[in-house]
Amino acid sequence: MEVRIVSYTEKGGDTARRASDALRSGGHVCRTFALEKFCRDGDEKLSVSASEWAKEAFQTADALIFVCAAGIAVRAIAPWVRSKTTDPAVLAIDETGRFVIPLLSGHIGGANALAETLANALGATPVITTATDLNGLFAVDVFATKNRLKITDMGLAKEVSAALLAGEPVGFSSDLPVTGALPKGLTNGNAAIGVCVSYERKAPYAKTLRLIPQRFTLGVGCRKGRDAAAIDAFLRRNLAAQGVPVDALVCMASIDLKRDEPGLIAFSEANGVPFYTYSADELNAVPGTFSGSAFVKETTGVDCVSERAAVKASRGELIVRKIAEDGMTFALAETREGISFE
């Protein structure tokens, strides 16, 4: 997780650095910002307003931590808040490190989990306010995030939480194997509202919240300057032939020579699918047997871009070998894993 931490006082800077050290030890990437007079080794000078700092961090970070009054944080982020499905986690910590408060994206963005981690590290109290957490109930957005499932309807997700809080049974069904016991409130039996984990458009309940497993990685390649509409049609046609909805894609991948390819970028942005690229050396190092081409090897430095990129990005199994058509290539890899309540 990419984390940005900002503080405004000397004591706050000490707390910010403690928080950063704790998160870095857990594998997170952190940057700490402070006013020039309070900067210490490793800090970056804060030279813009809190709101301008938040604007940039909203675009580049997974989490923002304000070591200051919660009101400062709220005013700073207010202009940039858009959606609970896309906004980063935002937390406030008082300058003495006594309280850690998730302010935004507690579930999907991971602010609540981050607060628990920081509270343990700082000896602080996490101030959790989300109702399902306080009542020890199943939180569908947390479950979806942990299991790489895409929520298809945030309105229905709220209704699921409301039903659980009201003590009403919520159905649960899954096409993927499940480990762990059903949480309190969920049932395998009949219910008026329920959650269904499936790639298909199933509706086993009168109100069905469908969660789409994101298990597939798309390997792509194309001739330079290939038309975006042609690329879109080609990729969609081949995904449909495999029964894979676009929403089931974790990401798409190619060689770094294609990082600025307009048609590939257009597909990525239009469908909200992250686009990763790798060097020829990185792709050549991917183990496995691939559909090699001498021409591709001479041109790019690697024998097969799409297959190797799909496996590299997914760390899964290649399930569809290269399909080539009119200067475009398609390959598909799958990470085969079930879902868990544990």
Write the layout of secondary structure elements.
Blueprint: E1 2-7, H1 10-25, E2 29-34, E3 43-45, H2 50-60, E4 63-67, H3 70-77, E5 89-93, E6 99-104, H4 111-122, E7 125-126, H5 131-134, H6 140-146, E8 149-151, H7 154-165, E9 170-174, E10 178-179, E11 186-187, E12 193-197, E13 207-213, E14 216-222, H8 228-241, E15 249-255, H9 262-271, E16 275-278, H10 280-284, H11 294-300, H12 305-314, E17 317-325, E18 328-334, E19 339-340
Explain how this protein is built:
34% of the residues lie in helices and 27% in strands. The protein has 342 residues and is α/β, with parallel strands linked by helices. The protein folds into 3 domains: 2-129, Rossmann fold (3-Layer(aba) Sandwich), CATH 3.40.50; 140-213, Udp-n-acetylmuramoylalanyl-d-glutamate--2,6- Diaminopimelate Ligase, Chain: A, domain 1 (3-Layer(aba) Sandwich); 216-334, CobE/GbiG C-terminal domain (Nucleotidyltransferase, domain 5), CATH 3.30.420.180. Helix 1 links the parallel strand 1 (2-7) and strand 2 (29-34). It starts with a strand and ends with a strand.
Key traits:
Nucleotidyltransferase, domain 5; alpha/beta; five-stranded mixed sheet; Udp-n-acetylmuramoylalanyl-d-glutamate--2,6- Diaminopimelate Ligase, Chain: A, domain 1; 3 domains; 342 residues; seven-stranded mixed sheet; Rossmann fold; 12 helices
